[in-house]
Write a structure and sequence with these properties.
Structural class: alpha+beta
CATH class: Alpha Beta
Radius of gyration: 14 Å
Number of strands: 4
Order of helices and strands: HHEEHHEE
Oligomer: single chain
Number of helices: 4
Strand order of the largest sheet: 1-2-4-3
CATH topology: Heat Shock Protein 90
Shape: globular
Distance between the termini: 23 Å
CATH superfamily: Histidine kinase-like ATPase, C-terminal domain
Number of domains: 1
Strand content: 25-35%
CATH architecture: 2-Layer Sandwich
Amino acid sequence: MRARHVVRRLSLDAGLRLIDQTKLVTAVSELARNTVVHGGGGRMSAGLLEQGGRSGVWALFEDDGPGISDIEQALRQGFTTGDGLGLGLGGAKRLVHEFSARSAPGEGTAVRVVSWR
């Protein structure tokens, strides 16, 4: 809940359209859930961006969990390691303007998303 509230406030400050606010908050909710469920907890940081005359919001999720052995596979629609629908990482990626992820087995995971106005 905290992640959602922080990003919603930042989205308003950045002047994101309502649809982009909703998409970003949905992506953040999924990434926060993944950080807790699959990463054993972790950290989220977020902030405002100004670049090339446009405003945006970024959010970074990091954990020290078991990591993801194949990120490309994890990004595919329908892929799941649990009992979910497989919309996690791939769904989050489709909801934002920029998405990057790095992970390795035993090294945790970091996912950064950005939405622009």
